[in-house]
Predict the structure.
Amino acid sequence: MIYRMAAALLSLLGLFLSAYLYLYKIGWVGTLACGAGGCETVQTSQWSRFAGVEVALIGAVGYAGLLLASLASLQPGLAGRRWPSDLLLTLAAGGVLFTLYLSFLELFVIRAICRWCVGSAAIIVAILVAALLDRRRLPAAQMQ
Amino acid sequence: MAATPTGMRRFYGVLAGVAVIGVVVLGYLLARPSRVSIPANVTVQASDTAGFRGYIKGSESAPIEITEFADYQCPFCQTFATLQMPTIEERLIRTGRIRWRYRDFPLQQHQFARLAAHSAACGHEQEKYWEQHDRIYEGQSEWSEARDAGPLFRSYAEGNGLDLTRYDTCMESGKYAGRIQASIEEGARLGVSSTPTLLVGDRLYQGRFDSDAISRLVDSLAPRTATQ
């Protein structure tokens, strides 16, 4: 259960981080606290939208989904079940793939690094690791 | 293995603590007042203009000057700037047939128009006026709906390669508020009441324009030579 708890906490952190970036994008918060990073360059580039939707909003929705899935997986009746683990793993893997795509854009197309995006990348990778460890802990007999 | 009830309570306590901290931080960021605002209706001092009469594009020797009174938050001005101006620049300005003068005429109903004009003026200070001008128009749909457009203008300045320390100082000082007001007052004296309005010679042209209409107007005033 510790891995699912970790996934829930990390998802909550990711949700706040994405919400912060989204609120910045729609002009509800001032300048981004970014040090010398290129957060504003990244956030206002044409790549800050994916299929017409703000990437930060996609992140917020994704983390909200992960949070709900991980909280559901903590319910007593689901502790030893495989599907909540599979769901977490699928969502986290999708998040990591999307993050890889965004990181590629940052490094090779926009040529600017947003520290908040790096933070989000670290969070989603950590959630994926937690989901993998959670799946591994389940004995084979209980996986069906 | 399921967690003990005590373990779960501790976990939910930590989760709730993180949630409260997150909400408080986001709430603080949302409630924080905008850092920059440009005063309206300032009294214009002679030093505000000091001979400044708009942002010029084109040759000083061009036979015709067109002055545009425009508002960065006006949708027609945005369409004109992004769709028509590139053609006008290519056909008329670069060929030396006209000189373009851009004057600020932020309308009262547009809450960020004056801030946008000031942001572009701060770009002018670093010789990046037209870059900032163009970027502000390109991003109009983005910043006009924002609660605070200032950070977006700042990000455009960053994208245009402006020195952000100098830009921030310029914006916070509101030093071009008088110049913008002077431009509004001059436009009002000439009879400008809406945007975009073009002044060609001593005539005002109001409404929507396209590059073909302006080409025809220029042709009627100064027929093309063989080299043009």
